[in-house]
Design brief:
alpha+beta; seven-stranded mixed beta sheet; 7 strands; globular
Length: 143
């Protein structure tokens, strides 16, 4: 009971939130980032870890597979859950982060303005605070 009370208190004042899945891809000391298109309603032009909204009735895993295919033209073959964090923007999002360990296909930006590999050492200067926390947690857990 105490755990639920603490959870409810932590979410007090948050209101409704949009559930999303974000995915971290690492390769040779770099992390894949996206620059969102300027015409996007949420976070236009920002550099972020890629991700997208969950659709009604979809599980986090289903969203992960769909969004990676839609956004990057890749097929996930192995991934692990990292953490869930609240991100306040023009909407309040509950971001469920996954580390994609293995994938198949040729990387292609299909929805973002661009995707690019950034050295891990400088990624925190480019991305949001929420993404920084998730990236640090991914490195801590799966280093």
């Amino acid at each position: 009971m105490a755990d639920n009370t603490m959870h409810d208190a932590a979410l007090a004042g948050v209101g409704e939130f949009a559930p999303c899945v974000s995915f971290i891809l690492l390769c040779e000391g770099q992390v894949l980032l996206e620059q969102r298109r300027a015409d996007k309603a949420v976070d236009p032009g920002l550099i972020m870890i890629p991700g997208g909204h969950m659709e009604a009735g979809e599980s986090q895993w289903q969203t992960l597979l769909r969004e990676v295919a839609e956004e990057l033209a890749l097929t996930v073959t192995r991934a692990s859950y990292i953490c869930s964090l609240i991100h306040r923007t023009t909407e309040t999002q509950l971001l469920h982060y996954y580390l994609v360990h293995e994938w198949q296909g040729d990387l292609c930006a299909q929805e973002a303005e661009r995707v690019f590999w950034s050295p891990l050492a400088s990624a925190d200067e480019l991305i949001t605070g929420t993404d920084c926390i998730a990236l640090a947690e991914a490195l801590r857990l799966y280093g």
